[in-house]
Design brief:
The structure is a single chain. This protein is an alpha+beta fold. It contains 11 helices and 13 strands. Helices cover 40% and strands 17% of the residues. The longest helix is centred in the N-terminal third of the chain and has 19 residues, at 87-105. The protein binds nicotinamide-adenine-dinucleotide. Nicotinamide-adenine-dinucleotide (NAD) is lined by residues 42, 45, 117-122, 139, 141, 157, 159, 161, 173-177, 182, 313, 315-316, 318-319.
Length: 359
């Protein structure tokens, strides 16, 4: 493990993208998206993923120097063709448009096709909350989720993010995958040699497994909720709902038609993912929205915990805590594997390596 100064995290990813010929704006935006994931503790979606994005640009599966364009629009809706740019370029473009429409008509609903992986969904919904609006950010993704009663992954981990502003820069922030856990968490258990709890993953034989190595091989995750008896069908339903609102509505690839996102993809086949950004202006409804959001947040935070060592927190508090710590310390601590991958990428792309501060 080693510490890396935060400005180095952004500098390094930006340099890697620029070394591949990506324009400065797209390179910076994509680098910031990766940094923000690590900043709030979602290491599965930060530097850890850099080689996937690098690989996609190298083999032509993603073309970041193009520009997204609006295919069709009304005062409150738009259908965007991302033109196979980075997920971050597509999402900044589309969320900014949805915010503009919500400010003008109360609602802004933008659906996106031909996009790429957009990282942590909360980052996009937060853009609207910073302007006093509430927002959903939804995306489909490569198949990993096995529908209840099935033994084959045909839906993505299709994340749902919803952020609503409270008073004094506080906010309700919910952002989660619709599988019980991510592949990243399974890999973490494999590294630690820990048994998986029931309801997380299937093994290669299509049966639920507690062995993280088998689960890594099979890449078949159970839906949020786990087995049928613990209501896993609700997670399956939520993932399917995201697919209807993203891929099916946008006319991008959807569900079982989406490529698997693996480093061995040398075919240049694009992801053609779909996203949805739905922004609403709470001022169009009852006055006092932010005050009531804040009142709920503080009520929950002040509830008596079942275990005194584990205080009740509000959705988003964990991210605020970790993000605040990163901001204060100015460094991020990475595990050996991520540092090794970064060194390899630096060598391949002839980019100045990350500055590592040994612990
Ligand atoms: N782009 C993609 O294709 C894709 C796919 C899957 C996941 N993701 C991203 O990965 C990230 C992680 O997803 P995840 O499902 O592993 O998240 P997770 O299981 O850690 O859940 C996170 C959510 O739960 C809240 N939370 C956590 N503990 C809590 C507690 N004790 N009380 C109240 N709320 C609590 C957090 O504030 C957050 O809103 C998300 O940012 C998601 O958007 C992206």
């Amino acid at each position: 493990m080693a510490k890396v100064p935060v400005e180095e995290v952004i500098r390094f990813s930006t340099d890697c993208f620029k070394a591949l010929g990506v324009n400065a704006k797209a390179a910076c935006q994509q680098a910031d998206m990766l940094y923000q994931a690590d900043r709030i503790g979602y290491f599965s979606h930060g530097l850890n993923r850099l080689e996937f994005y690098v690989n996609d640009v190298k083999n032509g599966a993603c073309t970041p120097n193009k520009q997204p364009k609006v295919e069709k629009e009304t005062v409150s809706m738009a259908w965007v063709n991302a033109n196979n740019v980075f997920g971050s370029t597509a999402s900044h473009f589309s969320m900014d448009l949805a915010i503009k429409k919500a400010k003008c008509s109360g609602v802004g609903w933008v659906c996106v096709k031909e996009s790429n992986h957009y990282g942590i969904g909360g980052y996009w919904a937060m853009k609207a909350a910073k302007q006093g609006l509430m927002a959903f950010a939804l995306s489909n993704s490569s198949p990993l989720l096995v529908p209840t009663r099935s033994k084959k992954a045909v839906l993505g981990t299709n994340p749902i993010a919803f952020v609503a502003p409270g008073c004094d820069d506080d906010y309700f922030y919910l952002d989660f995958a619709t599988t019980a856990v991510s592949m990243g968490k399974i890999a973490f258990y494999a590294r630690k040699g820990r048994k998986l709890p029931d309801g997380w993953a299937l093994g290669p034989n299509g049966k639920m497994t507690n062995d993280p190595k088998e689960a890594m091989k099979a890449r078949q995750l159970m839906p949020l909720g786990g087995t049928e008896s613990s209501s896993g069908y609700k997670g399956y339903g939520l993932a399917a709902m995201v697919e209807v609102l993203c891929g099916i509505t946008a006319g991008s690839k959807y569900g079982h038609h989406i490529r698997s996102w693996v480093l061995s993809n040398k075919s240049g086949g694009s992801a053609n993912l779909g996203h949805a950004f739905i922004v609403m202006d709470p001022h169009q409804f009852a006055p006092g929205f932010k005050e009531r959001v804040s009142e709920c947040l503080s009520y929950w935070r002040n509830m008596e915990p079942a275990d005194p060592k584990l205080p009740v927190i509000a959705p988003g508090d964990m991210e605020k805590l970790v993000g605040g710590k990163t901001d204060r310390e100015g460094t991020i601590t990475y595990i050996k594997r991520i540092l090794e991958h970064s060194r390899k990428i630096a060598k391949d792309l002839k980019v100045k390596p990350l500055k590592e501060i040994p612990l």
